[in-house]
Amino acid sequence: MIKRKQQQVSQPSDESGFTIIESLVALLVVAILLTAIAPVIVLATATRVQSRRVELATQAAKTFIDGIRTGAITAPSTVITLAASTSDAPRRVSDVAAIPAVAAVAATGSTPAIPATPLIPAITGKPEDYLISNSSTEMPPPTVATTLYCFKSGNISNPGCSSITDNLFYIQAVQIKVTGSQVNDGYRLGIRVYRADADFPLTASTVDTKNTQTPFTGGLGSRKAPLVEMTTDIGNSTTTFQALCQRLGTATNQTCQ
Fold first, then answer.
1. What's the angle, vertex CA 64, arms to CA 186 and CA 177, rounded to 5?
2. Quick one: CA torsion of 254, 255, 256, 257, rounded to 10 degrees?
3. Would you list the domain boundaries of the chain?
4. pLDDT averaged per 10 residues in sequence order, the chain, 257 residues
């Protein structure tokens, strides 16, 4: 009886483990799968980081605008001067076709008379007046940090950044005014927001080419390109419609009134 139990114990078990070859094949399959999905993981991570960076830059720009409007932040000293929009020289962001003159039509029977309408000349669009141009006569990209505002820990300092130790963003800003504007006429504020780890000199959009960073990226993103470019109007309680009209342009070639 004892001998029979010993024989049963000494018999080999049918529950054997994986062989070395099977383990190697399994590791190979896992490695192939990881290699296949690795680019997707990197792309998703980079896009998430870049999207968050653009979102924070937009918030920094809005904080800057609020600070300018309340007077908590000193207005930029750089001023771009444009020609005022008048009936003789109207400004528009795009071209406007001319409207031909129509001769008067006399009344006939029950049909009323149609008065004559004069020719309305075409308007040549000037997008450079409405976009932030990177030309040397308008708003060239920054070459040093000392002319920029610093955004860090939710606060914006006046121009004079000298270190990127704890800065999140650089902010470049200008005042866009029209010839002959007065103190209370207001101005259009042009803003660019850059990463604080950017390498100078920086880049910017042109009239024909947009060069801002996008929330979608497969890498680290461009450090030199601005995260945000925008303009907004800065006025006060005494800013007149005429001043706003001359600065932003007219819908047709009519006098601002």
1. 25
2. -110
3. 28-91+126-248, 98-122
4. 52 63 82 77 78 90 93 90 82 85 85 86 80 69 88 77 73 91 90 89 84 73 86 90 84 70
